[in-house]
Design brief:
Layout lengths: L4 H13 L7 E9 L4 E2 L4 E6 L8 E4 L5 E7 L2 E8 L1 H6 L6 E5 L5 E2 L2 E2 L3 H9 L8 E9 L10 E12 L2 E12 L5 E7 L4 E8 L2 E2 L3 E4 L5 E8 L8 E9 L10 E4 L4 E3 L5 E7 L2 E8 L6 E7 L6 E5 L2 H10 L1 H18 L3 E3 L1 H7 L14 E4 L2 E11 L2 E5 L2 E4 L2 E5 L10 E2 H7 L5 E8 L16 E7 L1
Parallel strand pairs: 1-8, 1-9, 10-17, 18-24, 29-33
Antiparallel strand pairs: 1-2, 1-5, 3-4, 3-6, 6-7, 10-13, 11-12, 11-14, 14-15, 14-16, 18-21, 19-20, 19-22, 22-23, 25-32, 26-27, 27-28, 27-31, 29-30, 32-33
Length: 461
């Protein structure tokens, strides 16, 4: 059926007289977690008009990168802010920002957790020292990602002082219990330093993992507790890369402390199918590279782990630049400890008489050192009795750098490979060796997690 011409005219007139739709803008930005130094995911961002009460409020959630966006926002004045469980646990409110939308131009608004000063005062009290560190976070179950109430969180670290009598140190410990929503806070931890932290609840726990506190003094960390008995083992994956070039490292060994291990393939990829769930510590070693230790969260939704290793050449070159001054200082410290501590000391003159082609050859005739199937152990009587030797696993240090310490396994024995010794240092570079039992290890060579019962310290020329 044909439409009359009059009707066509009316329709055209109506369209011509209709007002054009008002142009609208997009308001977008990110939410940043100043404590974790990372984007804040899962924040509820709200947008409210401050110029027209009839405009409905809008709400959205920040994504994994902290991003949010409101589309089709009309011209006017607005307020924007966000909510997050972290703010509730801190007892503070995030600042609300005002802005105006003009001429449909997009507006970027970035939001963030308040300053470290505000957070420190809110958590630790108004008299909190600005130089003190703060560890704040939550404990969650590795099985279901639920908050764990009444979990114990313990942090341990050492502080050293240089006096006229040498280096003195003391051990410090802080403990906290999580609230009903799993949150905890430890005030007064060492800013700019590191510490070992362990969380536990009933039979579940984390490993004793190292956490560094940044110079600004505040860090946030989520700790996942899980079974160490393998009841909730899951599969984790990752890659090992060269730190400078980013090239994959094949044949690297990746090992969960006191747990399973794997080797990387030609792509640098690795996987462990029976990893104990929870926050764990992994050790990564490769021929020609400085060994590294990293903290990983092992649970069903864990992201792949990427570890970058520095070459031994890069580390040794750094040492060589300051070798002359460092050598004098090291030898002075070596002699001072030789006169005042209970360790065993092998001087450069004694080493010359031992001969050998490789650095590992030196350990075939040293006191207290026991070799078993290519691994180095220390003979100890501390853990059993005065009449039965116990083969204990030492930590190893080269020029004051912590190189490796194989945690004791189920049998109580770990050991350090002779091959690793040769990888770290050449025979003609060795200037002195210190060997300590578990009762004589100097403070600077004691590991905070107490997983080793002695130390071997190697000095180079």
């Amino acid at each position: 059926m044909r439409i009359p011409r009059v009707r066509h005219a009316l329709v055209a007139l109506a369209l011509a007289g209709a007002p054009a739709a008002a142009a609208q803008a997009t308001v977008h930005g990110t939410v940043y977690d100043s404590l974790a130094h990372a984007p804040l995911a899962g924040a509820t961002v709200q947008l409210v008009s401050s110029s027209d009460e009839h405009v409905a409020a809008q709400s959205t959630t920040s994504d994994s990168l902290g991003r949010f966006a409101f589309r089709d926002v009309s011209a006017g004045r607005y307020l924007v802010g966000f909510l997050h469980p972290l703010l509730d646990s801190l007892g503070i409110d995030a600042p609300v920002r005002g802005f105006e939308v003009v001429d449909a131009r997009d507006v970027r608004i970035d939001l963030a957790i308040p300053s470290t000063t505000q957070v420190r005062r809110a958590v630790c009290g108004p008299s909190a020292d600005s130089s003190d560190g703060l560890l704040i976070g939550s404990v969650r179950g590795a099985r279901d990602d639920r908050a764990v109430a009444h979990a114990a969180v313990v942090a341990r670290w050492r502080e050293y002082s240089i006096t006229t009598h040498g280096i003195t140190g003391r051990s410090d410990t802080l403990a906290a219990s999580t609230t009903a929503n799993g949150w905890f806070a430890l005030c007064g931890v060492p800013a700019g330093g590191s510490m070992v932290v362990l969380a536990s609840h009933a039979s579940d726990s984390t490993d004793a993992v190292e956490i560094a506190i940044p110079a600004d003094g505040i860090v946030r960390k989520t700790l996942y507790v899980g079974s160490t008995r393998g009841a909730d083992s899951v599969r984790i994956t990752g890659t090992v890369l060269a730190g400078v070039s980013g090239a994959p490292i094949a044949g690297a060994q990746v090992r969960i402390a006191n747990g399973a291990e794997a080797r990387t393939d030609e792509r640098g990829a690795w996987s462990i199918s029976a990893a104990a769930s929870g926050t764990r510590s992994i050790e990564v070693r490769a021929l020609g590279y400085y060994p590294d230790r990293a903290t990983v969260d092992v649970w069903s939704e864990a992201a792949p782990v990427v570890v970058k290793l520095s070459t031994m050449k890069a580390v040794l070159d750094t040492v060589k630049i300051i070798a002359s001054g460092r050598r004098s200082s090291n030898l002075a410290a070596f002699e001072r400890r030789r006169r005042s501590t209970g360790g065993t000391f092998i001087t450069e003159q004694q080493l010359a008489r031992l001969g050998g082609v490789r650095a590992s050859d030196l350990f075939r005739s040293l006191p207290r050192v026991v070799l078993r199937q290519g691994f180095i152990f220390l003979s100890s009587t501390f853990r059993d009795s005065a009449t039965h030797d116990y083969l204990c696993s030492p930590s190893v240090w080269v020029d004051d750098r912590y190189m490796y310490g194989e945690p004791p396994g189920i049998s109580g024995i770990g050991g350090v490979s002779l091959f690793q010794i040769d990888n770290w240092v050449r025979r003609d570079e060795v200037a002195g060796i210190e060997i300590y039992s578990e009762t004589t290890v100097p403070l600077q060579y004691q590991l905070l997690d107490k997983s080793h019962c002695g130390a071997i310290v190697i000095w180079t020329k």
